[in-house]
Design a protein that fits this description.
Order of helices and strands: EEEEEEEEEEEEE
Oligomer: single chain
Strand content: over 45%
Helix content: under 10%
Number of helices: 0
Structural class: mainly beta
Distance between the termini: 39 Å
Largest sheet: 6 strands, mixed
Length: 122
């Protein structure tokens, strides 16, 4: 059963499944959009160019990769790993970050509350 969660105006609306953990629970596949296209799975990849990646949930065993380009990655709940990749990325985790945020190479701006943050210049 799927429901829809409305995110802040700056974010897109992505599906939220009833069985998705609400805080640090067992693994569930990441719920995201990549450049407006729904993406669901344990590994979410951007492209070699600039991407807009929006995720409502990234689980403990999930990874989101921006790859190349100046990416804008926004996550509501992160319990897994978010990697910006090469170039200059902006990564935002809106809820308390229970995972790892890695800006990667380039000048990266990471707005994260809690958790581990590496390779972020701001």
């Amino acid at each position: 059963m799927a429901a829809t969660a409305a995110l802040p105006a700056a974010l897109l609306t992505v599906p939220v499944h009833a069985d998705a953990p609400r805080s640090g629970g067992a693994a569930a596949a990441a719920l995201c959009t990549v450049n407006g296209v729904p993406a669901f799975g344990t590994v979410i990849n951007g492209t070699a160019g600039p991407d807009t990646i929006r995720c409502s949930f990234v689980g403990v065993t999930d990874t989101v990769n921006g790859l190349g380009g100046n990416d804008n990655i926004s996550v509501v709940v992160n319990r897994g790993r978010v990697n910006g990749g090469n170039d200059n990325d902006v990564i935002t985790v809106l809820d308390n970050n229970g995972g790892i945020v890695d800006g990667g190479a380039g000048f990266d701006v990471c707005s994260v509350n809690g958790g581990m943050k590496v390779n972020c210049e701001l």
